[in-house]
Amino acid sequence: MARRKIIYYDEVTSTNEIAKLLVSRQVEDRTVVVAETQTAGKGRLGKVWDSPKGVGIWLSIILYPPIETSEMSQLGLVASIAMCNTLQKITDQHIKIKWPNDLVLHDKKIAGILCELVNIGDKKSAIIIGIGVNVNTSRFAESLPYASSLYLECGVTFDRKQIIEEFVQEFENMYDKFLEYKTFKVFLDEYKNLCLNLGKVAYIKTKDKQYTANVISINSNGNLVVKDEEEKVFEIFSGEVSIRGIYGYT
Ligand code: BT5
Question: What is the 176 CA–ligand 1 centroid distance (Å)?
Fold first, then answer.
């Protein structure tokens, strides 16, 4: 398979913002942007993503998938499986996915994903999949009690470039399969096996309400299916919620 273009930067505001700029310049499909540090790294829902220099992986993948815009967030789930597989292989640890796409080791968050859509006209969109992995970080701010790194959890440092290269290859293979079948369904079993939320009670927070519910399943669109305290079953979409375990982060 052809090697993808990986563009390395020393310092950026956010690799997702650079990726947006590159989309406006019609950069080629599957371009990957990587930075040593981000001065304005972003999480979901306007949150901040801490991106210290030289110890993490801060990257964004640019894709122009020939699918409906409404289906594109499924690619964030595909990317979380790809990164999970890559990190499991490299660290030999059981890394889990906290829905929709946090990666968790020993109940701590070691990676997060932020997908953003960019309108490219003609009713089409590009998707930018931004991934942050805490690789060799040796300490976190007190304000991040659930954050950890591969180094802190495994006691050894890891080669960030090797992780990036193996991840890009793993993601490419999965993305090709996604394009062949055009549905997340082909990854659903793999995702469910890695997902730590299934069968647990979750504390769910949206813009206007907060409640606890049982996580029953994940459907073929990658949405979480939950049953609330009144036994009402419904699905929740990744863009609009944050979820936690009832006793802590997971
Ligand atoms: C995420 O959001 O987890 C998505 C993170 C995506 C970061 C990548 S880095 C490359 C690309 N460029 C960007 O600008 N972003 C992407 P969310 O689920 O909303 O979690 C955000 C929350 O995680 C914050 O409110 C903090 O509580 C916590 N947090 C911040 N920095 C962290 C870190 N380095 N490690 C673990 N947790 C962190």
Answer: 27
Taking each helix axis from N to C terminus, what angle separates 160-181 and 74-91, rounded to the nearest 10 degrees? Answer: 140
Place of tokens 């890891």: 158
Please state, in angstroms and as integers, the Cα–Cα distance from residue 98 to each residue in 47, 110, 177, 201, 207, following that order: 17, 11, 23, 13, 20
Ligand 1 lined by 84 (C-beta under 6 Å): no
The whole-model pTM stands at 0.96
pLDDT per residue as tens digits for the range 69-86: 999 999 999 999 999 999
Give the Å distance between the CA of 119 and the centre of ligand 1.
Answer: 23
Beta strands 56-63 and 32-38 are antiparallel
Residue whose Cα lies nearest atom 19 of ligand 1: it is 44
Report CA(58)–ligand 1 centroid distance (Å). 10
Query: What are 114-138's pLDDT values in tens digits?
Result: 999 999 998 899 999 999 999 999 9
